[in-house]
Structure formats: C-alpha cells, structure tokens
Fold:
Amino acid sequence: MKKSRKIGEKNLTIKTNKMAKKKTETISSLELLTEAFMEDVNDGELQERYDRFIIQRDRTKEKYNEIVPVINELVRKKNVLHATIFALAIEGIISVEANTEYKKINTEFVELEKEVLHLKEAMETNEELITKYQNGSNDKLFHWWRAFKAIDSEGTAPWIEWKTPYENKII
Structure:
C-alpha cells in the first residue's frame, strides 16, 4: 500500500494498498505541521506522569495533614510535662513517672517529626516536578504556535487565544 505525498517539489511515497497503486497528493506545510502537532498533543505519556505527580502530591499532603495535629498535641503534652517536672524539681520532688512519660512522648515526637519532614520533602519534590511539566508544556506549546504563525500568520490566532484549548493538557 503506497501513497505519495507531494510537498513543494518533494515526493514522499508511502504504501496505501496491497496492490501497490501509486497515488500522488499534495500536502501543504500547514497540514504536515498540524499533523505533527496533533500527534504531540495526543501523546499521553507526559500527561500520565503529570497526573501521577499530582496524585502523589495530594496523597502525601493528606498524610502530612493527618500527622501535624498529632505532633501539635505531642508538643502541648511535652510542654505541660516539662513545666510540671521543672515545678516539681524546684520543690525538691523528683517524679520518675513524669520523666518516663516525657521521654516516651519525646521519642514519639521525634519519630513523627522525621516522618513529617520526609512527607514535606516529597510534597516539595512533586510540586517542583508539576511546575516543571507545566512550564515545559507551555514552552513547547509556544514553540508550536510560533511555527504555525510562521507558516500561516494570518490564519493563526494570537497566542493567548490559540493556547486556550490546550492549557489543561501537558504536551
């Protein structure tokens, strides 16, 4: 199956049927550009990665928001115990129970603090990737628009109007 495409003075030959009949058609630069652009727009690989980054960021944010109130409560308990232990020490009383409880709460606090820092770092990493993908997509879209503008300056809408249908798509 062969098909010939005539671009300016060049001929492209592609098989179009089993009988190998040759057919020549003229394809404009604008049509070829549009075809290449639509192929880029319809390629979903970058969009899938971008969507995964958003899902990961949102899940991490949920976990982070669940842990922060627990940490705040532990800080409150630590402060109360610390003040109690200090007040008892001033009176000359040593409370083993208060010291044990303080150490237990402090250990739990340190573990959760490490986890929160890890979650915060993961959120920031995903946020950076999301921003990079958005900026890269916008830059790529701008280059496509410039190519369309160079080939068909009168028929191509201004940048702000032209990009609108593709704003929520990562290419």
Q: What stands out?
A: The first strand starts at residue 2 and ends at 7. Residues 1-16 have pLDDT under 50 and may be disordered. Residues 43-166 form one domain. The first helix runs from residue 29 to 42.
